[in-house]
Amino acid sequence: MSEQLGEVDEGARVREAVVEPARVRQMWHLLEPLHAVLYYAPEAFEEAAALGYDTGERWPSYFPYRAAPLGEAGPQRVASAFYSFSPRMVAEYVEPAWRVASPAAVIEARARAVDRAYRALFGDRVAGPELVEAAALARRAAEAADPAARPLAAANAALDWPQAPHLQLWHAATILREHRGDGHLAALLMADLDPAESLVSFAAIGAASVERFESRGWSLEEWAAARDRLAVRGLIHGDGTATEAGRALRRRVERHTDQLAAGPWQSLGPARVDRLAELLGDFWVAVLASGLLPSETTLGIGKV
Predict the structure, then answer these.
(1) d(CA 104, CA 110)
(2) DSSP code for 1
(3) HSE-up of 127 (CA within 13 Å, CB side)?
């Protein structure tokens, strides 16, 4: 009888150790703004301009900043890894990127950019005990992320870890968001959604406006063709809104994404995940309150 009770107790402990999908998604919501500072902070544009990139808009620096860990990857490889961007748009910005600066120089510039941006955003807290503890926990999760079949996560994970805790936090956030993003692409493939269809179906459930998704470079004709393909499958109505089948498909995509992103957080464990979420709160608020990030993005954070 005591052995049976022991088995029950062990089972309860195992269940208690599971990090729930909603928590997995919340950690993405908390870490994504910390990563995205690189694409919007004035310090990032200044570092990109110093390398020779056009900073009149964000895309000339966005593509090399994000793709640099892949090495001198060409447009086809970057389009494959980024997925939802029009290959035509990727080629426009990636083809000249490595003529302006080498991937190694870009990686150094983005570290300088994040260092400066975090110091501006967080002030004295950049070296405070809360950030140091958060960086250690985030790094532990990032080091547990399986890079198999995840090209962007693997490329970032292969880089040397920075010494400063605030840069470790950014690096960990980057590995974890790319790990989730790579898994999201697998979920889209399982749902038989090609790059354009992934955006059309996402817009159809109200994740963001169609105008916001236009930033990914697809022409009106390509968008309409993707919409027609989804309509034939019974996933969207004639007005572009999702049918119940379309909403169900997107729910499955998000559920699969959460499942594929769960590994690092299961490794960290619920108590440490809770602690990291608590520690990240003030830094997350600081980034959002800065006004650097757009109020609407193509990620659907807070809506899916």
Answers:
(1) 10
(2) -
(3) 4
Across the chain, which has 304 residues, the per-10-residue mean pLDDT values are 41 61 97 97 98 97 98 98 97 98 98 98 97 98 97 98 98 98 98 97 90 91 97 96 98 97 98 98 97 78 52
| Contact status, residue 152 vs residue 70, Cβ threshold 8 Å | yes
Contacts of 289 (CB under 8 A, 6+ apart): none
For 296, counting Cβ atoms within 10 Å of its Cβ (0-12 exposed, 13-18 middle, 19+ buried), the class is middle
Sequence-distant (≥ 6) Cβ neighbours of residue 165 within 8 angstroms? 127, 131, 132, 135, 136
Contact 203, 168 (CB under 8 A): no
Determine contact, residues 178/152, Cβ cutoff 8 Å: yes
How much is the pTM?
0.92
Single out the residue of 127, 114, 98, 124 nearest to residue 40, CA to CA.
114
The span from the CA of 25 to the CA of 184, in Å, is 12
Taking a C-beta distance cutoff of 8 angstroms, is the pair 201, 246 a contact? yes
* Amino acid of residue 6: G
Answer whether 283's CB lies under 8 Å from 34's CB: yes
Give the long-range contacts of residues 271-275, CB within 8 A, separation 24 or more.
272/137, 272/140, 273/19, 273/23, 273/27, 273/141, 275/133, 275/137
Separation between Cα atoms, residue 68 and residue 83, nearest integer Å:
16
Closest by CA to 143, choosing from 179, 109, 113, 185, is 179
Q: Write the CA distances from 6 to 10, 76, 204, 212, integer angstroms.
A: 6, 55, 50, 55
